[in-house]
């Protein structure tokens, strides 16, 4: 019987917990993103200003415009796309932040299939 009374209290406490989101700390700076591609870890390093992101991945550097929708959401659009796939904008949403970086989800704008990743601030 006591367990029945504990359940609503635990549910209430869990619903009050909010993830930290200090997104303004990550609008600009130098970052590192490590992802699994075909079973191998690949590292991407990028530097972001208020409206530009320059990324180096696999020895190639590319740039994209950054348009902030809110403090925690922005859209990336490649400046020099080489094909139709690269012309598609990417929506990014910062989900949680820490003192080292942030966790985010991203997808092509209009695509429902979202992926997640974690970025570390290196400067």
Give a short summary of the structure.
This protein has 123 residues and is mainly beta. It has helices spanning 2-15, 84-87, and strands at 29-37, 40-48, 52-57, 60-70, 73-78, 90-97, 101-108, 115-121.
Describe the structure.
The radius of gyration is 18 Å and the shape is globular. The chain has a single domain, classed as Beta Barrel (Lipocalin). It has 2 helices and 8 strands. The N and C termini lie far apart (54 Å). It has an 8-stranded antiparallel beta barrel. With 123 residues, it is mainly β. A hairpin with a 3-residue loop joins strand 2 and strand 3. 15% of the residues lie in helices and 52% in strands. This is DNA topoisomerase IV.
Radius of gyration: 18 Å
Structural class: mainly beta
Shape: globular
Number of strands: 8
Strand arrangement across the biggest beta sheet: 1-2-3-4-5-6-7-8
The helix/strand series, from N terminus to C terminus, equals: HEEEEEHEEE
Oligomer: single chain
Protein name: DNA topoisomerase IV
List keywords for this structure.
123 residues; Lipocalin
Secondary structure layout:
Elements lengths: L1 H14 L13 E9 L2 E9 L3 E6 L2 E11 L2 E6 L5 H4 L2 E8 L3 E8 L6 E7 L2
Antiparallel strand pairs: 1-2, 1-8, 2-3, 3-4, 4-5, 5-6, 6-7, 7-8
């Amino acid at each position: 019987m006591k367990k029945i009374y504990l359940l609503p209290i635990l549910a209430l406490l869990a619903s009050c917990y909010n993830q930290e989101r200090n997104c303004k700390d990550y609008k600009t700076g130098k970052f590192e993103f490590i992802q699994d591609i075909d079973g191998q870890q690949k590292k991407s390093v990028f530097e972001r200003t208020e409206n530009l992101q320059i990324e180096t991945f696999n020895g190639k550097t590319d740039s994209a415009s950054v348009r902030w929708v809110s403090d925690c959401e922005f859209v990336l659009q490649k400046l020099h796309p080489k094909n139709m796939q690269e012309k598609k904008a990417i929506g990014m949403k910062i989900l949680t932040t820490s003192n080292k970086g942030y966790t985010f989800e991203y997808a092509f704008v209009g695509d429902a299939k979202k992926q997640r990743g974690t970025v570390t601030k290196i400067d």
